[in-house]
């Protein structure tokens, strides 16, 4: 699997911003089939940083209603990546 297929997008929320500032931990939406080793290698290769730890979680999609029609958002996988001390990814600045 290509490293750019593994990492889909950063998850920018209030909680993830606090985790970044306090624990040097970033959150990404990743491919559901990717494992922790593949995620760590992809982050290291794309952003040229050292990854210490990867924690993953599968997020269930919410049920949404539009009128009579009931639909469901897709399930997705979230990866919380802890970077080495001193390492940082710049595109999160100012977000």
């Amino acid at each position: 699997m290509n490293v750019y297929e593994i990492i889909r997008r950063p998850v920018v929320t209030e909680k993830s911003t606090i985790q970044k500032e306090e624990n040097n931990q970033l959150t990404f939406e990743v491919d559901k089939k990717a494992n922790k080793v593949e995620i760590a290698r992809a982050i290291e290769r794309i952003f040229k940083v050292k990854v210490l730890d990867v924690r993953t979680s599968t997020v269930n999609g919410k049920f949404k209603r539009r009128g009579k029609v009931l639909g469901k958002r897709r399930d997705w996988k979230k990866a919380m990546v802890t970077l080495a001390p001193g390492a940082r990814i710049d595109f999160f600045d100012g977000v």
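The first strand starts at residue 7 and ends at 10. Helices lie at 3-6, 14-23, 36-47.
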